[in-house]
Each structure stands twice: as structure tokens, then as C-alpha cells.
Amino acid sequence: MTSASVHTPPFYCPIESAVHPEAEQAERRALAWLGRSGLCHGDTDLARFAGSRSADFYARFAPNADPDRLWLAALWVYWGFAFDDARCDEGPLAADPAAFAPMAFSLQRALEVPGRLHCADPYAAALHEIGELFRAAAGPVQVRRFEHAHRAWLTGVQWQIGNRAAGRMPGLDEYLTMRLHSAGGEPTYAMLEIVNGLDVPDPVMDSPAVRALTEMAILVAALDNDLHSHIRETARQQTEQSVINVFRVHHHYSLPRAVDEAVALRDAVLDRFLVLRDRITPRAAAPLRHYLADLGHGIRGNIEWALRVPRYLTPDGIAPAAVRVPEQAAAGHWTDAPRSGRHDPRRLPSIAWWWSDLAR
């Protein structure tokens, strides 16, 4: 498949913008920690970490978080982007699932083990310390949910690397199943309870409706990231697995047609998210209402962050990038109407259940 750039259409997202007022303070605290974490070997590495603007990213997911916890979530996002670049998308493990697996699950164990732990791998050592900070800040249920979500993410990445090693492009339903995990949305949203000090009871968090809403928020953001990252990953020859290329390979669509179908699919999922959330929220207790609101903040915030972040706008992820469209033209990023397409998500077995009667 030949590489090509893609023009990202305006985003349908009727969710209000919000950002935590202490995002810059969270960034300073997180970057100071990273500077002494052992992951950064000089100013260039630290600049690359800073180029992900992870504190701004999470400040948009949790605009009302406890300021003393917000920076902890930013730490993991900084770590996650660095790990993704070094060992998931690039490097010797990026197409070697047999080598990736023991490394990844050693990392997972470092996250889960409480107390003192010697880790020779600097990524494992940093992740262990993040886990310790989470355990000090939040309850065991919230931390355990994050650990489970983290394991699911690594499993999804393992699946993605296996496809890369085999040179295979998954079909649409398989791709969406994989992307629900490999995009990192599960641990990202699992941190909402930690930073907000929430305690959503297990029967509520595990109910079909809340599970569906969480998965839909993850998938919308993941498909948006496929669109945002296409230009960057084309430059790095990493475009073999994305929703755009699923449509190009399996349906033989042109690039513009593939983009249109990807956007239409994403818009249909977002519409279902909005309808179901509006049905669930009025009778939800306060912790669940807060959680559901922040699922939406994450969808909107992920778009706003990606439109401005050096990670997507510059080849090295470091240089202070110009905004893709000038601020005075920012309205051009958004549309009030969802796009329609040929691919009805209700016909995809892995996600069709989201359209069941879940609001009972």
C-alpha cells in the first residue's frame, strides 16, 4: 500500500469543552518527577516527554480532579506514550511478539507488586513507582481496576504486534475488538476514579450499560487517534494497522473514501454513547454521574489535545508545533452533524450489543 496523507474532516462532538485550571502545575510536577525517574537521558529525552503534553491531555479528561492527584495520572500518560514509542511502535520488539510478551508482563508485575522492588528495566522501575503513588493516593478497588485495565492494554498491544509480525491486516470487527484494548483507553479511563476520588460500586461499574458507555468512549477516542496519527505514522512507516487501512485493504476504498467511512462509523458510536448516557445519568448516584460526565470530557478533550500536540504535529514530537489550524479558525474543527456511511456498527458482532436495551 502506498503512503498518503489524509485531511481530517471536522469532528462531530456535541460535548462541551473543559480543562482543569491547574493543568500547568500538574505538568511541572510530572516533568520534575520524570527528570529524576531514570527514563530521561538528557534534555532531548525530557523534551520528547514534554512534547506529548500529557498533563494537558489528562486535564481535559478530568477537569474537576483533585489537583494533588491529577499530576499522578499525567505521570502514567507521559510514561505510556514513551513506552508506546520505544517498545510498541518502534524498536526491536515492535514486530516480535515472542520477545514483547515477557517484557510486557514483567512490566505488569512491577506495577502490581507493592513495596520495595528492584527493577533493572528503567520502564519497569518507573511504572512500579507510579503504582506506589497510586496506592498511596487511592483505595484498593480503584487501583486494582487500573491494574486490570493496564493488563488488558498490554494484551491488546501484544495482539497488534502479532499482526504486524505476521504481516496481516485484521478485518473490521476484529480490528475494533483489538483497538478497544491496544489504544490504551482502558487504563486512561480507569484513572478517573483515582484522580477524582470516586468510588463507583462494582455492581454499577460492571453493569452492561456502564460497561458499554466506557467501551464506546474508548473506541471513539481510539478511532479519532487513528485519524490524528495517520500523518505522523506515515512518516515513520507505521500505518499498517488503522481503521483507515482496514477499509483500504479489505474494501479497496480510496484514501478519502476510507476516511469518510471511518468517520461515519465513529460518529454512529458517539451518537449511541450520547443517547445511552442521557438515559442513564438522571437516575445515577453522584459518583457515577461524575464518571459518565468525564467519559464525555475524555472524548472531547482527546480531540482538542491532538489538534495542538507536537506528538502529532511534528515528525520528532519535540519542536513547538504551530496549531494545525489557526485559533481564529478553530470553529472549522467541528461540525454539528454526524456523517452517515455504509457500515452499520450494529451489524458488527463484537459491538452490536451496545445497541441492546441497556437502560433498564
Automatic annotation (TrEMBL):
InterPro entries: Isoprenoid_synthase_dom_sf, Terpene_cyclase-like_2. Pfam families: Terpene_syn_C_2 (PF19086). Its cofactor is Mg(2+). SUPFAM superfamilies: Terpenoid synthases. It comes from the Bacteria. Gene3D superfamilies: Farnesyl Diphosphate Synthase. It is an enzyme of class 4 (lyase). Keywords: Lyase, Magnesium, Metal-binding. Its EC number is 4.2.3.-. PANTHER family: BETA-PINACENE SYNTHASE-RELATED, TERPENE SYNTHASE. Belongs to the terpene synthase family. This is Terpene synthase. The lineage of its organism: Bacteria, Bacillati, Actinomycetota, Actinomycetes, Kitasatosporales.
